[in-house]
Amino acid sequence: MLTVKRGSLWVLASTVLIPLATALAFWWVPDDIDQGFSQKIFYLHVPVALSAYAAFAYGAFAAAQYLRTRDVAWDLRSYVGVHVGTIFGTLVLVTGPIWAKVSWGVWWDWSDKQLNVFLILFLFYCAYFMLRFSLDEGERRAAFSAVYVLLGVGLIPLSFLAVRVAQQVLHPVVFTRSGAAMPGSFVLVFLIALAGMLSLTAGMITLELAGKRAAIRVRELRRRLEGSDL
Amino acid sequence: MIADAVLLARKDLLLELRRREVVLGMLQFVVATLVIVHYALAGVGRAGLPKAAAGMLWIAIVFTALLGIGRSFAAEREDGALDALLTAPIDRAAIWLSKVLALLAYLGLMEVVAVPAFLLLFFQHGRPALAPLLAAVVLADVGIAAVGVLVAALAQAARARDVLLPVLFLPVSIPLVIAAVTATIAALAGTGTLRPLGFLVVFDTLFGLLAWGTFAELVGE
Lengths: 230, 221
What we know:
heterodimer; A: globular; B: mainly alpha; 9 helices; globular
């Protein structure tokens, strides 16, 4: 059970790093001049969003590997990557509006790129589960799931681009963040939070994979015990 | 390969010509949708109508396209002809391309009615820039067909096929709709449409290549 150990180590790392980043964010980093206290959610929201992308990227990579090798292990990895990514994506859609409400006064801002792209991705990956669970287990389900996940590789950049193009044409007011670079302490705490969240992602993927593999193994053993494949 | 695709597409169009199931249905659907949308926008008032209308054209087109997409593999499924098609010595991608061509023909026929009806219902007094509007429609059709046929192939093997198809198709179509609506608004207002049209070209190319490259994984085996 090497994978369980590895997954647990990742999770352990995250249980150190995430509280550390949270504590530093609250007690060490000064309040943001512009947004004040509410900017603290940045240390949760942005690492969660980047972790979701990391998990989706892993899922897409595994899907491509599946189509190349036809090894079912990659199909399982792809599924788990998308699953964990969707969990983090849900968290982005929860934390995003909270931040938006506090700092812009609205729950949802249709001109915010990140949030809207996540909404599109969320719909896209939810459909993935529907597709997967309405196909019978086997080679065909694996191939169909992989092809659909690969569509996401095109969808992510195109969603960003589409929202941008619409903004430029329809709302030509360009609001630039007036180049005030983040102070060093912000960056440091952000990086700790990001490392913690990525460890959590890696841990969740590893452990879910171990669990799924164990379930498949149990099913095989039970079938053998019942003598159905003798 | 292209010759194979054209041949297969001709077969689909011939079937459609004999049966007249898909295109007539799409025509009625799109006109009914535009009329419903017109009444749904009753609160907008005459002055706001042209502005709100651009989105309505694309709601009508995308949802009507779903009808055609859903029938893409109907003939093969109903007659069990897909297996026969797969044993034929042709490239798998040619099957995808033939379905894309047939779907483009259906979409084009539907829009020949839908776009004038749209202009009549929503835009009687303006002078829209017709060339960019048509360019947006054509470019969007290519993207809808490229993605639609792939998604139809995914859905046709699943259990709740009819429910699954829109659930799979609509999220992928969102960037396309964003750009198409943007281009239409700009065309109706007579301002620059280069960026959204450029985006549609990128969308068509990227998803065309993705669908082309992966379609063989869905059929076959």
